[in-house]
From TrEMBL:
Residues 127-154 form a coiled coil. This is Chemotaxis protein. It comes from the Bacteria. Keywords: Coiled coil.
Amino acid sequence: MPQTEQPNYFVIAAIVAAELYQAMVVARQIALTASNARSLAIRAGQGAAGFRAITDFIDDLASVTVNASKVINNQAVAVSRIASDTARAEFALVSFDNAFHKASGAPYLSSLDASYQRTQEYRDSLREKFDKQVVNLNSRLEELARELRTAMVLSAMSRVEASQAGGQFEQPLNVIAQKVADAAAEIQRRVKYSRQMFSHLGKGRAD
């Protein structure tokens, strides 16, 4: 791997961590929306009975999304730290190489061999840990993406149930359904972007 690529790993991992933090914030908004929807559906009475049932699913989805985003965000932060540590190890190895080159033939130069070997082993262990973390993160992002597809289905169902409420409650229930759809779409966008960024990491490590 070229020495100049490693800092990009740190930047990408940091960007993904930020994206997933924002996804978690939006997921919490879905939870608040579900709470508001439940209260409104109760006031709407029997006509919104189906909508009340859907709010439970929306609430569960929000909880799953918040928890998953939190875990993934923490893992992304960990990947960012590993990338930073790897960059420092790479820099140390470059410094060793420069020292060996400039001081070629100098007495006691071989005393650096053990330190150089330890740094190489440390760098290699970080790379291995990094690769495993990226694979795990991609898997979790894929799981979250599947959960979010459920949100779009729930939004469509919510619109149908809102139409059954009739009167003064139909419009506000439709607004809530749209908020769920918009929030889910926003999280999906951030998750998709995060997966794309990590796919670049995987390609970079393979080079």
